[in-house]
Write a structure and sequence with these properties.
Order of helices and strands: HHHHEHEHEEHEEEHHEHEHEEEHEEHEE
Largest sheet: 7 strands, mixed
Structural class: alpha/beta
Distance between the termini: 57 Å
Radius of gyration: 26 Å
Shape: elongated
Strand content: 25-35%
Helix content: 40-55%
Number of strands: 16
Length: 380
């Protein structure tokens, strides 16, 4: 048979599949109504497992895996359709709607904000983009920032989440598992790293450079060219600049922001030493309480999936059927729980969309454990 003849045959088969799909979904809707009348859950794990085994037994061995994937997706679509036909407002939806009605229309211009590091840190610069008149309080660790917000000591906290060159700040994701918070806004800050030292220091005099591990990673190409120079990680880029300014040594330098030069009376030995010119760090602003401001079009979630084949696929399939765009997916192992992972999602969807409402109502059926981290917009 020619290619055109084969394509016509596929078209005929597809027409049959379309009619069968419509018939199946009509019955799915009836099943959903019967479950609602009988106060039964949408998901019946034992029934699906039995059904998948039965389908696999009817397929030739070379098609079993493909058939399993197809019907798994079909089951996800069916559950989503049943939920849409019989919407049940969840407790989370009510919480979100309450936050949307009680949150002010404008993001606060001033607030007490927790940042890690010292004056001149990139977190402080990000804070300046988020708030017009912030009262910044500095803490020695990221965990202290979470704790300050969680305990009500500071109204907000600003934390780095990911960098376009060095990737995710994994420590933040690990801390997310242990603290209660909500993301209320985010921003991206262009990071231009500078090599700074005490006035009068020459580049050839430098024997040791201090900075945060992320900054060191972002400037790796430049640092590799400096022969015989020790690179020492420290807690923060601004703290590195401050320690160099206070040091009695004249052979040390720091990688820090431009603002640290004047702030600590230093001299710039080299500018823009990061590996890439388009070096951006994304920062999140967290709060103890759920606040959803007008225009929120990003949603962040954390989910825990069991260690079995297809568990993550089921989540992705449901997001796909809802038409939700996943703009970030990060996985982290859960301490003390063998082979179990936390998955962090950033989804692109307006809080006013039907897809968002359906997703919120379906979260309990998508996975066993999840944490809604907030819906927010990003300041450019």
């Amino acid at each position: 048979m020619s290619l055109e003849e084969l394509r016509k045959e596929i078209d005929i088969i597809d027409d049959t599949l379309v009619r069968a799909f419509v018939d199946r979904m009509n019955v799915v809707a009836q099943v959903g109504q019967a479950k609602k009348d009988g106060d039964l859950p949408v998901l019946d794990v034992a029934r699906e497992r039995q059904k998948l085994a039965d389908i696999a037994s009817k397929l030739p061995p070379e098609l079993e895996q493909y058939g399993y994937a197809l019907w798994s997706m079909l089951f996800e679509i069916s559950r989503g359709y049943q939920s849409a036909m019989n919407p049940q407002p969840s407790a989370l939806r009510k919480e979100i709607e309450g936050a949307m009605s009680s949150t002010p229309n404008l993001f606060p211009p001033k607030a007490t904000v927790a940042c890690q590091g010292v004056e001149g840190a990139y977190s402080q610069l990000a804070c300046g983009k988020l708030f017009k008149h912030p009262q910044v309080m500095y803490f020695g660790s990221f965990e202290s920032v979470f704790a300050a917000v969680e305990n009500g000591f500071c109204q907000y906290g600003v934390l780095p989440l990911e960098n376009s060159t060095a990737g995710s700040v994994t420590q933040i994701y690990d801390l997310m598992l242990n603290h209660k918070f909500k993301i209320v806004r985010s921003t991206r800050l262009k990071v231009d790293h500078n090599l700074v030292a005490k006035r009068g220091t020459r580049l050839e005099d430098v024997k040791e450079i201090f900075s945060h591990p992320q900054a060191i990673s972002q400037c790796s190409a430049y640092l590799e060219k400096l022969k015989g120079v020790k690179v020492t990680p420290c807690a923060n880029t601004a703290a590195a600049a401050e320690s160099v300014a206070k040091s009695q040594r004249t052979d040390v330098a720091a990688i820090s922001s431009h603002s640290c030069i004047e702030l600590y009376g230093l001299e710039r030995l080299a500018a823009d030493i990061q590996d890439r010119g388009n070096n951006y760090t994304r920062f999140i602003c967290i709060s103890k309480n759920l606040e959803i401001y007008p225009g929120a079009d990003k949603t962040s979630l954390m989910m825990v999936t069991p260690h079995r084949p297809g568990s993550l696929y089921q989540i992705l399939a449901r997001f796909y059927t809802l038409g939700l765009n996943i703009i970030k997916l990060e996985s982290r192992p859960i301490p003390g729980r063998d082979f179990e992972f936390m998955f962090y999602f950033d989804l692109e969807t307006s809080v006013y969309s039907d897809e968002f409402i359906r997703m919120v109502d379906d979260l309990n059926t998508i996975c066993d454990e999840f944490q809604y981290l907030g819906s927010y917009s990003e300041v450019i």
